[in-house]
Each structure stands twice: as structure tokens, then as C-alpha cells.
Amino acid sequence: TPAPVREDVRADFPGISGRPDRVYLDSAATSQRPEAVISAEADFARHDYAAVHRGSSLATGEATFAFETARERVAAFVGAGEREVVWTENATDALNMVALGIADASAGLGGERFALRAGDEILVTEAEHHADLIPWQRLARRTGATLRWVPVDDRGLWTIDDLRAQLTARTRVVAFAHVSNVTGMIAPAAEIASLARDVGALSVLDACQSAPHLPLDLGALGVDFAAFSGHKMLGPNGIGVLYGRAELLDELPPARTGGSTITTVTMEDAEFLPAPQRFEAGTQPVTQVVGLGAAVDYLAGIGMDAVHAHEAQLAGELVDAVASVPGVRLVGPEPGAERAALASFIVDGVHAHDVGQFLDDRGITVRTGHHCAQPLHRRLGVAATTRASAYLYTTSDEIAALRDALREVRGFFGADR
Ligand code: PMP
Asked: Do residues 384 and 46 touch, judged by C-beta distance below 8 A?
């Protein structure tokens, strides 16, 4: 039976229903937007646009109301308190804010509990996206801390035992992706948060590939910080979220400073507001926030359990599509094991970019390259893979189209001779 997507879901997405010439299998990079999001942004821009949190005009009051109710809805969507959602530019920005805040604390700018000292350890995994790796490399350089990592195996996977083996009494930060954007592996986030807590380390969750696809309850997972991007969850780009437990956010030094973040400023110093305002420096991206509010309303209306059920079926179909083709090697969990609805693969004898071009010529949009995870690709022994990824609007027919095209690719390039 085909995956249970409703035709009316596809009809909600002009970038899908309006493009019958295209099979869009690149939602892990960025998702299409439903009309509800596009019109929420446009209506706000047309009728209600004004600055937020400054001045006392009626227009500002109404825009601020829209801005703050979107925060409440996004917070409820991920199991957070409304003071625990900070607007950022994207997930990259959010992860940098945590790492830079810890660097500021280490430099004596407040938030003593976050301060790192030489010899302290930061733990990541070898599978991390560069956005959840480079900020920690820089933090280690700035503080004299040591960066350690959980190694991955030949398929790009790691286990909680591998992580436990790298944890020490000096681990102060454990940062990891909930769902890998290359392998689709789903990390046991609650267990890792609890292991981190046991050694007195902060847990930082890169929820970029989980917030759009799984029912997510950050409070219940018990992570200290989390980051995700609006543009991967049906929302606009230019908006992301830093989640942090309220008492941590109130103490983390704000790495970026300026207007809207303060209570009192003198020529010598500044006092900062509580979270979330202390982190939202400058004129806020209010239109994008309104769009993200509409995106989570849309997802909640469908129900994340239904989204996940649809994608669980597509994940199986994707794996079958890739694993059934001779000479194509699947990265990530074995067929049959749990994974997100994405599949990265290597076609023997054909460069990923040629595979991508071949699929593109058949109207199939996929992503090729290192997917911002060079260390992982180095471990896999390739410079690039091809990745197909699905979302709630993807159909079984589209996965079948990918399978049929993949069956031809090695022959086309003469790699099967
Ligand atoms: N982490 C993961 C796992 C991702 O997939 C991505 C986006 N490819 C990011 C972080 C960075 O997201 P953004 O570019 O929206 O900041």
C-alpha cells in the first residue's frame, strides 16, 4: 500500500503541486512551504508589519503580539516553555551562540557555571554537521579545552556505548545531532542527556533533522540546549531557534549584544534582560517569526505522529529503492533498522555529482556533496555521497521514480562493464 499521504497535503504546497515536472527529494536541505505559511508571511507584511518590542504605538503592540504568540506556539510544539525559545537566524547561529556564550563565560564575562578551563573536555561525534563541530573546535581553541569525539564505523554509525567510552569526569559539553543529516541515524537523546548530566556536562542537541519530522518534547528529553532551523520545517528561511532550559539561558552570557537586550546601559557597562530577550539583539526578523508560527500550526494540524508514520514507511521504501540496485552502497543503518526518511548512497564507479546530474536530468532533485560533514565522509572513504530525503508531501511513487532512475545510472556511465 502506498504511504498514507493525503493528496490534499500535496495540494497545500505550491512548490510541489505546482511543479509536476519535479520530484523533490531534498527536504533535508530545505523544505517546501505550504500556502498557509506563504500567506501568513505575506498578510503580515501587507497589513500588520511594524517593529516589535520598541516604542508604544498600537502598530508595535500588535506586531509584538504576533511575534510573541508565535513564540508560544513554537515552544509548545517542541515541549519548551515560552521563555526557553530564543529566535536566531538558523540552527548554525543558535549553536554558535551557545559556544560563544561559554567562551564569554570562560573569559570572565558572567555565567561562571559555564566557564571552561584548560584540560576540560568537549565531546562531539565524528558524524556531526560542520555547524555542530566548528563552533566547538573554536571554543576549545579559545579556552584550552580538549575536543574529543565519538568515532563512527564503516557505515557512519556510533552507539551509546561508544559515547560512554569517551565521557570522562572532565567532560563539560556533549554536543550531538538527534538525527544525522547524512546517515539518518536517530540518537538516543534522552539517555545521552542523562549520561551528560551524570558527569556534570551540558548536553547540546542539534535538532535540525528531528524537529521537522518527529514528535519532539525537549523538556522530556532533558537536554540543556537545542537548535533547529525554520526552513527545514515548512517555515521561512532566516529564522531558527535556540532552546535552553530557562535557568541556563538566564545565565549564559549573550555573545551578540546590542539593542533590545538590556535593562540599563551606561558608558561603561550594560545589564541584560532575562531570556529570551537578552539574546535577541537588533531589529527582530518578525515576518519570518510569524511564518514559522504558521508552519508549526500546519504541522500540529496534521499531527507529528501522522507525519512520522508517513515518513517511517517512506524510509523503508527509500532503503529498499537504494539497496535493491546492484553496485549502489547505502550509508547509515542496515535495511530494516530504524532511520529517518533519508538515504545517502555511493554508486560504485560513478561520482556523486554525476549521479546527481543524471537524476536531475530526469527531474529528480537530490543533494550531492559532503553535506557539511567532511570528517564523516573521510571516514566513509569518499569525498561525496548522493542523498535523497523525504517529507510529509513525498509519495511512494516518487521513491519508485528514484529507484527506476538509479537502476539505469551505472549502465549510463558504463560503470557496470
Ligand atoms: N545540523 C544538521 C544536522 C543539519 O542538517 C543542518 C542543515 N543542513 C544544520 C545543522 C545547519 O542548519 P542551518 O544551515 O539551517 O543553520
From this structure: no
Q: What is the pLDDT of residues 52-105, one digit of tens each?
A: 988 889 999 999 999 999 999 999 999 999 999 999 999 999 999 999 999 999
Q: What is the pTM of this model?
A: 0.97
Tell me, in angstroms, the distance from the centre of ligand 1 to residue 11's CA: 27
Q: What are residue 24's DSSP bridge partners?
A: 365
The preferred substitution site among 181, 339, 344 for testing ligand 1, maximizing ligand atoms within 8 Å of CB, is 181
Q: Which helix (DSSP H) or strand (DSSP E) does residue 202 occupy? A: strand 202-206
Q: Which atom of ligand 1 is nearest to the CA of 28?
A: 5
Euclidean distance between CA atoms 348 and 409, whole angstroms: 10
DSSP H or E run through 171: strand 171-177
Question: How far is the C-alpha of 79 from the C-alpha of 306, rounded, in Å?
Answer: 18
Unique residue bearing C-alpha cell 497545500: 12
Give the span between the Cα atoms of 336 and 237, in whole angstroms: 34
What ipTM was assigned to the predicted interfaces of this complex?
Answer: 0.99
DSSP output for 240-283: EEEEE-HHHHTTSPPSS--TTSEEEE-SS-EEEPSTTGGG--SS
Cα angle 227-232-236, degrees, rounded to a multiple of 5: 100
